[in-house]
Amino acid sequence: MKEAIDCKPGQIIQKDGALYIVRSWYPHKIGDRGGIVVDMKIENLDTGNISMIQPRSQDKFDDVVLERKQVQYSYQDGDMYVFIDKNTFDQIEIVEKLIGANLHLLKENMELDIFFHEGRAVSVVFPTFVEMEISYTENVVRGDTSGKVMKKAQLENSGYEIDVPAFCNIGDKIKIDTRTREYVERVK
């Protein structure tokens, strides 16, 4: 059994026989003598419905046994994304929805982890940082030194835009945090 205080974003929990993925998690104390409660936003993996729950910190969820497979992204086929299991070389097809917000950071030959529950894929986990190349960005006006000057930049193969510092140019490789989808640093 897993307590609510230990359920972090991205983890799979089981509640009332259904599987949920924790999307957000915020513990806080209620009142002077009250206990700790956890505001959790959870998504049902079968229906896609998102709900808010507020369990006490010591409330327990059933354990979920997951199988982890290390995979490499191969190609897209319609709304399915095909990955190769690094151990067995089997092809694994994953729906776009399961990849989630990091879909724009997916590129050929990227290594990821996919978690399965009873043979069904339930979660795709990206590495914490990925390196991408800037395919397009505007030049900035010289002389603006009022603070941290940021500009929009499009990433390779997806056209996804993020904010980067003014010194980044087309062709530069940058490191991106997949948890926040924000610029971290320029890669040399």
Automatic annotation (TrEMBL):
Coiled-coil region list: none
Ranges where the Translation elongation factor P/YeiP central domain occurs: 68-122
Biological processes annotated in GO: peptide biosynthetic process
A GO MF label: translation elongation factor activity
UniProtKB keywords: Cytoplasm, Elongation factor, Protein biosynthesis
Entries under Pfam families matching the protein: EFP, EFP_N, Elong-fact-P_C
Protein localization: Cytoplasm
Predominant place of localization: cytoplasm
One annotated Gene Ontology cellular component of this protein: cytosol
CDD domains associated with the record: S1_EF-P_repeat_1
Domain Elongation factor P C-terminal positions: 130-186
General function of this protein: Involved in peptide bond synthesis. Stimulates efficient translation and peptide-bond synthesis on native or reconstituted 70S ribosomes in vitro. Probably functions indirectly by altering the affinity of the ribosome for aminoacyl-tRNA, thus increasing their reactivity as acceptors for peptidyl transferase.
Protein name per the record: Elongation factor P
